[in-house]
Amino acid sequence: MKNNLLSANEKSNFNTLGFADSIKRWFKQESNKRLSISFMSVMFMLFTWTFVTATGLANPLFLPGPDAVYKAFVETLFDGYQGSTLFEHVGTSLYRILAAFLLACLVGIPLGIAMGISRTTHAIFNPFIEFYRPLPPLGLYTLLVMWLGIGELSKLALLFLAGLPGIIIATIQAVKDINPTLVLAAKSLGASRSDLIREVYLPGAGPTILTGMRISLGFVYTVLVAAEIVAASAGIGWMIWDAAKFLLSDIVIMGLIVLGLTGITLDMVMRGIGFAMMPWTRANRRRTK
Fold it and tell me: Which of 137, 204, 235, 284 has its C-alpha lying 20 to 30 A from 31's C-alpha?
């Protein structure tokens, strides 16, 4: 009986030590360590938010607690806000974001490649891009509304113009950073201009272009609220703007959280697509770890 008890204790100690060793090995991996730090950072922020609101240090009219924001999320999800559910608001905004962003990619990537390869093309288009790139979105929007009206077309045009410069600039720089030896080698093997673009420029410039696309998508998100404040009745940006007019801070914070989470999700999708289309980036990433 005693021997069985000792063996059970030893087995328990062995399992405990094995679990501790597995935890140590898990934390030794750099990616897991960063994930743990990020998780603790988010938990600390949530704890601070809860503490500040629960102790009355912040006015709940301007900073509601996490429970109030969660209730606003549930109510908006099922009952809706101003006649539309949360899914409808998010779907409307995602349609505007993705349509404008995809159009910016279809225009910006080929134009950036052409400007990176040809000095003449760069000289033709660069002044216009550098001129409108620093213009404020609301200043552009007033002109777009005058030209295109207050419907969807002006909103899509504003989001398109917000995402276009970053893609073009990133693509130009990516093409210029291509090793000229690779270009000369391809030309010596009889590669045509289209072959160079398909086999040299796009594979070599792909990672930098993807980074520019991710940055441009962030610009599109920042302009979304400005695009939806004029003559809109749905959209996550419009919902945030409309709720702010009535001091519904729980709706505002909930909308910002949803907007941020959808942005993170789209960014993760873009990175996944990039890794799938450019498998050599995974090898480079493993070597740098």
Answer: 204
* Biggest alpha carbon–alpha carbon distance for the chain: 91
Task: Let me know: does 141 contact 132? Beta carbons within 8 Å.
Answer: no
Q: Chain centroid to CA 198: how far? A: 27
- Return all residues near 147 (Cβ < 8 A) that are at least 6 apart: 154
Residue 12's contacts (CB-CB under 8 Å, 6 or more residues apart) are none
Q: Looking at per-residue confidence, does 192 or 91 come out higher?
A: 91
Query: Does 66-288 carry CATH code 1.10.3720.10?
Result: yes
Phi, psi of 118 (to 5 degrees): -105, 125
Strand partners, 81: 84
Distance of CA 62 to the CA centre of its chain: 27
Map tokens 């990616």 to a residue.
Answer: 31
Query: Residue 61: helix, strand or coil by DSSP?
Result: coil
Q: How far apart are CA 286 and CA 35, in angstroms?
A: 17
Domain ranges in the chain with CATH number 1.10.3720.10 = 66-288
Residue 137 or 119, more confident? 119
How much is the average pLDDT of 102-118?
A: 93
What are the backbone dihedrals phi and psi of residue 273, each rounded to the nearest 5 degrees, phi first? -65, -40
Neighbour count for residue 29 (Cβ, 10 Å): 11
Burial environment of residue 195 by CB neighbours within 10 A (0 to 12, 13 to 18, 19 or more): middle
In this structure, the number of other CB atoms found within 10 A of the CB of residue 244 comes to: 14
* Residue with the two structure tokens 């990133």: 170
- pLDDT for 284 equals 53
